[in-house]
Amino acid sequence: MDSDTQEQAPLLEARGLQTHFFTRVGVVKAVNDVNFQVMPGETLGLVGESGSGKTITVMSILGLLPRGAERLKGEILFEGEDLAKKTEKEMQDVRGKRIGLILQNSMAAMDPVFTIGTQIGESLVVHKKMSWKESLQNAVDLLRKVRIGAPELRIKNFPHELSGGMRQRAASAAAIGPQPALLIADEPTTALDVTTQRQYLELLKELQAQTGVAIIFITHDMSIVGSLCDRIAVFYGGLVVETGPKDELFKNPTHPYTKALLGAIPVLGDKVDRLQSVEGEPPNPGQLPPGCPFAPRCSAAMDKCHTGDPPPQYQVSDVHGVRCWLMEEENA
Ligand SMILES: Nc1ncnc2c1ncn2[C@@H]1O[C@H](COP(=O)(O)OP(=O)(O)O)[C@@H](O)[C@H]1O
Ligand SMILES: [Mg+2]
Question: Ligand 1 pocket test: which of 17, 21, 47, 54 has the largest number of ligand atoms within 8 Å of its C-beta?
């Protein structure tokens, strides 16, 4: 992304997002204070260990929270409106039409009893008010766009008749059909083999170049972030602990957790899960420690890191923020 994007208004901005689960055994603080921006047409990577709050953050944005979860605070500014203030009925119009969703397991996301054509067509009928005939013609074009051969035949297939990679591409065709401004992809390549994964990421980039869609890409794989993303939000214990343009973060990682994550960036496709190379265990959001959630694993932790609220966000630059008390020391 070039530097004039900084002057643009964000397509999506999450401010102070907080979502907790109220369970029989207590409160699970899944999302505590999440702040990030996505510019039109760019790719934001949400990265962080399993359980850090990435999925619940995007589900909070989409209004698709599981039972027991409640969005307590925050603004979700999207295309000039606050999604947090919208009714469920209004959100039904945003989902699918303005924001597309691609999940890790497209088999589970697709309905096994309907053909691929019907599933891609349905969202066009609903959101674009097309006739069924029109929508099926469009489904063929969309399948061609995601590089599925013989699309006229493929629209008649059921999800189980497609390979995993093809199904993920079909699910992506369904998501981009209504021409959303934003695609949210939650670990879409985790279930794919290395070659299929690489092809899928290339396809996403191509679709973005053709349509100008912005993407929120959730992953725990730093090599994917490196090749795909313009901007990054690093999640830890329900907080965005560092965020900014990828190049800046990679050059000047400032939070001790980000530094640990970037300690060894594997080449794309390396199946070793490098996030596990950060020593220690991620926090349990049902029992977060006081202070900074990363403090118990942080070799640079000071006394104040173990008490009170998590550190506020300090600016490394206009566009690069970090939540770490070390920044206060530095600025003092
Ligand atoms: N249905 C649920 N009930 C209770 N807690 C949940 C539920 N789903 C997720 N959580 C909690 O929320 C935290 C964040 O989950 P999630 O956003 O799915 O993490 P990530 O996507 O980063 O792996 C998890 O650590 C878990 O403790
Ligand atoms: Mg997740």
Answer: 21
